[in-house]
Amino acid sequence: MSYLTVTLLLPVLCIIIIITSTAASSVSRKCGDTLATPLPYSSFTSSSVYARGYGAGYAKLNRKQGAGGWSPLDTDRYQWLQVDLGSRKQVVDIVTQGRYSSSDWTSKYRLLYSDIQRNWRPYLQDGNIWTFEGNVNSEGVARHELQHTILARYIRFIPVDWNREGRIGVRLELYGCSYCSSLYYT
Fold first, then answer.
1. What is the pTM of this model?
2. Residue 74's pLDDT band (cuts 50, 70, 90)
């Protein structure tokens, strides 16, 4: 290439890069719908329930109904809360709180995801099964922007550690948007 060609093409290339990066960032900002809040109670299931009012369907962010969130019968590492998003979604953020006005919260957790409720895949970050930092009290909010988007219908929240003076407790929200495959079959 001649110097003249490079000189003429460089500004055009810069404009293309700016337009592309602006379009990409505006798309990612648009993928921030609340995914859990609009779901019915029946879209939430769990390994167990501590008592009436502590059911999985009460695990929505900022909710005070029932006992103010989900708590399982046993407080151990074998518990889980599952959200059925209804169809495959792009999940980009997760936000958690403890159970309303209680000493029950989850201080560390992991995520699993699947499209068919089998063959669960762990959320990985930096090539490792990732453990998220959760809450330090029942009312504060812990928000995590995912390093990579989860594409799935089912999300499982797995408590790993919790307030030892209380129980496992959680309210959560997932943020993202509908998933549209770019593959077309004929």
1. 0.82
2. very high
